[in-house]
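A reminder from the course coordinator: this example appears on the midterm review sheet, so study it carefully.

Given structure:
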């Protein structure tokens, strides 16, 4: 039997207000690869997702994404110093050392999608 290959997996992230969410992700540093008719392909380095003009509160409020980064402190400081949380009136938590071996924090997007941004503690200089 031939081994099945996979090249990519991409989530479709909901947006209550598409233009606001698109601006939010661009402020975080995502590049818009394509955008048309309520869909946008957003990319940061080798990571990407689709933003879609779709909103159902029960779905969106239970939607979570995770970004694994090399240095969680640098990401946290970027978000704090950029004022993104205040600009979009979204929730940003402090960095926490988790029992599952990560240092992470959460950032909620303008629609309510919860993003975990974290680093494995075994790669932390100060862990």
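Designed residues:
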């Amino acid at each position: 039997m031939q081994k099945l290959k996979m090249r990519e997996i991409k989530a479709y992230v909901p947006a209550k207000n598409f233009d606001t969410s698109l601006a939010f992700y661009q402020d975080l540093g995502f590049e818009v690869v394509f955008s048309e008719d309520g869909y946008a392909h957003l990319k940061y380095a080798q990571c990407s997702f689709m933003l879609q003009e779709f909103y159902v509160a029960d779905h969106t409020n239970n939607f979570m994404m995770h970004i694994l980064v090399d240095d969680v402190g640098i990401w946290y400081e970027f978000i704090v110093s950029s004022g993104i949380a205040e600009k979009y009136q979204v929730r940003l938590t402090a960095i926490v050392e988790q029992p599952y071996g990560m240092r992470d924090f959460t950032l909620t997007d303008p629609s309510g999608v919860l993003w975990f941004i974290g680093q494995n503690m075994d790669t932390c200089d100060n862990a």
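Residues 17 and 88 are 12 Å apart (CA to CA). Strands lie at 12-15, 31-36, 39-44, 47-53, 64-68, 96-97, 102-108, 114-120.
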